[in-house]
Amino acid sequence: MAREQKAKAKKEQLKGKAKATVGRAVGNETMAAKGQAEKSKGDARQAKEKAKDVFRG
Length: 57
Known about the structure:
By secondary structure, this protein is mainly alpha-helical. It contains two helices and no strands. 12% of the residues are buried. The model has no long low-confidence stretch (mean pLDDT 93).
């Protein structure tokens, strides 16, 4: 299960970064903001999974 969550986090990070980059490139601030939010969500998910790993030992 943890592997799936880590993969999901990485996917969110990459997708968010791409969306933010494209949004900035075309001048679409809404898309850029949504992309950054998605990337942040992926970052948070990754941090949660890393914390779980620390407690699992």
